[in-house]
Amino acid sequence: MGVEMTANFRIAAHPILPVEDRPEFVFTWQGRTMRAREGETIASALFANGVRIFGYHPRDGAPQGIFCANGQCAQCAVMADGLPVKACMTVVQPGMRVEPLGGNPALPDVHGVPEMGSIETVEVECLIIGGGPAGLSAAIELGKAGVRTLVVDDKHRLGGKLVLQTHKFFGSVDACYAGTRGIDIAEKLEQEVRQFENVQVWLNTTALAVFSDRKVGVLREGHYVVVQPHVLLVATGAREKSLVFKGNTLPGVYGAGAFQTLVNRDLVRPTERLFIVGGGNVGLIAGYHALQAGIQVVGLCEALPECGGYKVHKDKLARLGVPIYTSHTILSANGEREVESVTIVQIDANWQPIAGTEKTFACDTVLVAVGLDPVDEFIHKAREFGLPVYAAGDAEEIAEASAAMFTGRIRGLEIARALGRDVGEVPPEWHRTAEVLKSRPGAVVTEDIPEVETGVLPVLHCAQEIPCNPCISVCPQGCIVMEGEDIRALPEYVGEGCIGCEQCVAICPGLAITLVDYRQDSEYPTLTLAYEFPPDTIHEGDVVTVLDTEGAVLGNVEVVKVRAPRFADRALLVRVRAPREIARYVAGIRVQESVVAEPMDRYVGRTLDDEVVCRCERVTAGEIRALIRAGVRDMNHIKAVTRAGMGACGGKTCANLIKRLFREEGVPLRDVAENVRRPLFVEVPLGAFAGVVVGEGPAEEEPVTHATDVHEGGM
Question: Which of 19, 33, 454, 689 is the most buried (most CB within 10 A)?
């Protein structure tokens, strides 16, 4: 089961995403000629050519690759035409000379004095930092109200993480485009924003800092600009959390956002065999995206007794052939220069490893998907300096993208009122809808399998209350209903009205509905299932393995029809004929054979004690624990002694890991003094503040870093 690949690790065909021909050119990596595509980053171009090690750390020679692919760390730094840059954020250019970042890179030969210029100041009523679902939804409300608004985003297109989401969204059809793919929601929101003349959009623009004079500095395509807003809306999304384990910085260990960027944005296949750590929605969805890209997913482990993500996401992976290990954690990522295997272990009720339960799986990538932290630096500084500030989306509270869209709408209306526009009060139902969309998954109930074995009817393999109702909205006969008005209730089929239109099967975001038709043959009814894999992987006459909701094999059945109706939105509808005894229980078709996920004969233990907390400075957990045990309670003290938090990322990843070490050592966080935050949240050439245009003339010789502040998550 897979996607057609070229020899250079590019995805040549995808079941959902269009694969467009883009102009190609050559660049060099360590003197070797390689091919890149117009508009892609250095990191993506290197991965497309099979390069995963970007350099070696000067402290201990450890190999370095990508981690976040979103500008939040500096692990992917390289030299490009003699300048240090972040490979994940810098667009590769024709003829560019790319080299690993050495310990002491030679300074560029600069001739002349950079030409300095005046700094432009722009005044707006509302500045929105972040063009993801929350920021765009707020901009739409502000546009309707006539508020002069500026949206800044560090990417080349709007949508935030929506542009990486190929799956259909949960929630309500009316409230947040439920049943529509994230990539399409991004386009809808952008089109709506663009229609307002009072809303201006600056792409490729990085917000740098909020200053004491209540102004915001941004770097717009190399030009430093000062924005003076009356009100600031922070919709910067979230950054991924990390974990401390042996081998956690090996090339091949990185976050789910980085994986989705490579696969779903840049159509690069970065791995052959993937293991996922973390059973939230982000990890579960990343596993599904991997299978769609033809990547083997050898397993997923979750420390909790149950996955924290939606059960339909977990079930979808299980019945596609991915084993899920709950109450398990990662012990180590193993390999000399990059990931070669991963070792996991079962844990007890006290979160301690159980000896003898270790398992090792051969893989080349470990995907870390253990949650998100809000990108909230701008909020705290704005409040400190008295700039009126609002927050929306993940910057305010980690939730689904559907909730981010709705909180964005609410904040947009609130800001318009604060600026004196006559827009009325925020409707109370908006607040109620936002809370519903932000709610955690409910309890799991026993799956309700219908007893009827006549006619045609949908089988709803939903067994957990989550905010989702597109199957109710799409049913033309009104056969699927929910009790009350709360979209978190479980859908029910009320019987005898189904006409077999298959629209509920096609729209279900969790692929949790099958249609069983007894009308032609009651002993061997036909079943319709949604299938989101390449058309050339399944054909009429094939024999496929079908599974129940939990992934248990029910048997092998024949495919009798494959079609792709327009209402299925790039999915296939596959009909199979199954014996009556199993027909009602069939929930999916296995796409990955069980042999793929078998562990190795023996478990591998990593001998190096390299549990790294600070990636930039290669500071280990052991070094920090020793200081905590010696009585240190100030994170600034730890920083001064070890340099943890002193690197290019400014402590974005390691600060929370250090706090976790304090907790593990029995020190309450109320007794811990936090790091002093840097005045600038993103690295920037000093010349920019003097009006030097980054990337032009002598200013080209300055280090250029286009880092990011926008990471809007979404399910």
Answer: 689
* 664 and 620 in a common domain: yes
Do 500 and 526 touch, CB atoms closer than 8 A?
A: no
Q: Is 186 strand, coil or helix?
A: helix
Task: Report, in angstroms and rounded to the nearest whole number, the Rg of the chain calculated over CA atoms.
Answer: 26
Would you give the end-to-end CA distance of the chain in angstroms? Answer: 24
Two tokens at 377? 């630096």
The DSSP element (H or E) to which 455 belongs, if any, is: none
Report which residue type is found at 597: A
- Say if residue 480 is in the same domain as residue 587: yes
The C-alpha atoms of residue 245 and residue 242 are separated, in whole angstroms, by 10
CA gap 208, 219 in Å, rounded: 7
DSSP 625: H
Instruction: Kindly write down the DSSP assignment for every residue of 86-106, as one continuous string.
Output: ETTTSBP-TT-EEEEB-SSPP
- The residues of the chain scoring below 70 in pLDDT are 1-7, 102-113, 694-715
Give the angle 289-291-295 at the CA atoms, nearest 5°.
110
* pLDDT tens digit sequence for 285-319: 999 999 999 999 999 999 999 999 999 999 999 99
Range of the domain at 636: 613-693
Asked if residue 577 lies in contact with residue 525, where contact means CB atoms within 8 angstroms, the answer is yes
Report pLDDT digits (tens) over 487-501.
999 999 998 889 999
Identify whether 462 is part of a domain.
yes
| Three-class SS state of 5 | strand
| Residue 135 and residue 232 in one domain | yes
Question: Is the residue at 387 inside a domain?
Answer: yes
Which residue among 550, 569, 597 closes a domain? 597
Structural domain contains residue 201: yes
Inter-residue contact 464 to 442 (CB < 8 Å):
yes
Q: Which residues pair with 149 in a beta bridge?
A: 126, 199
User: In the numeric block, which tokens belong to residue 92?
Assistant: 């590769």
pLDDT of amino acid 669: 95
Match 């990662």 to its residue by tokens.
330
Identity of the residue numbered 212: S
Q: Give the Cα separation of 344 and 363 in Å (integer).
A: 13
Q: What is the DSSP letter of 657?
A: H
Q: Report the residue count for the chain.
A: 715
Of 406, 438, 470, the domain-final residue: 438
Q: What pLDDT is stored for residue 1 in this prediction?
A: 40
Q: Is residue 220 part of a domain?
A: yes
Instruction: Please check whether residue 124 is in contact with residue 227, taking contact to mean a CB–CB distance below 8 angstroms.
Output: yes
How far is residue 257's CA from residue 367's CA, in Å, rounded to a whole number?
9
With vertex at residue 434, the alpha carbon angle to CA 428 and CA 436, rounded to the nearest 5 degrees, is 105
- Which residues are CB-contacts of 142 (< 8 A; sequence separation ≥ 6)? 126, 128, 149, 198, 199, 412, 415, 416
Domain identity same for 590 and 460: yes
Domain of 233, CATH number, reads 3.50.50.60
User: In a 3-state reduction of DSSP, which class is residue 316?
Assistant: helix
Q: What is the pLDDT of residue 111?
A: 60
Residues 573 and 499 in one domain: yes
Q: And the tokens for 609?
A: 């004690």
* Structural domains of the chain, count: 3
631 and 507 housed in the same domain: no
Q: Are residues 419 and 566 in the same domain?
A: no
- For residues 465 and 584, membership in a common domain is answered with yes
User: Residue 276 is inside which H or E element, if any?
Assistant: strand 273-277
Q: How far is residue 477 from each of residues 319, 453, 457, 499, measured CA to CA in Å?
A: 30, 20, 12, 8
